[in-house]
Design goal:
Layout: E1 16-19, H1 22-31, E2 49-57, E3 63-67, E4 70-75, E5 79-81
Antiparallel strand pairs: 1-2, 1-5, 2-3, 3-4
Length: 87
C-alpha cells in the first residue's frame, strides 16, 4: 500500500496508469473486505494501460479512481504508474 497522507492521491486526472496483474487483483479481492470490492468484469483489464478519468476519496482517505474506457471503481493499490507510448 502506498505510504502517503490521507486525501492525497498518487495519480492525477489524465495520468497514465497500468492496472495490476491478474494475480495481484485476485489477491486484492481475497483480502479486501470493505467498500468498493472489485467486480468480476474488472479482472479482464489486468495488465492493461489506462488513463485516470476521476479521482475521489472514501471516508478515511482511501483513494478511488475511475479510468477512461475501463469499467468500475479502482483502488489505488490495484494501479501502478503507467507510461505514454510514443507514436
Amino acid at each position: 500500500m502506498p505510504n502517503h497522507d490521507a486525501y492525497n492521491a498518487l495519480f492525477e486526472v489524465g495520468a497514465p496508469v497500468r492496472i495490476q496483474s491478474l494475480d495481484a487483483l485476485n489477491a486484492f479481492r481475497r483480502s479486501w473486505k470493505f467498500h468498493h470490492p472489485l467486480a468480476d468484469e474488472q479482472l479482464a483489464f489486468a495488465d492493461q494501460s489506462a488513463t485516470v478519468a476521476t479521482v475521489g476519496f472514501y471516508h478515511g482517505g482511501d483513494v478511488l479512481y475511475t479510468l477512461k474506457d475501463v469499467p468500475g471503481i479502482w483502488h489505488e493499490r490495484c494501479l501502478q504508474r503507467g507510461y505514454v507510448q510514443a507514436i
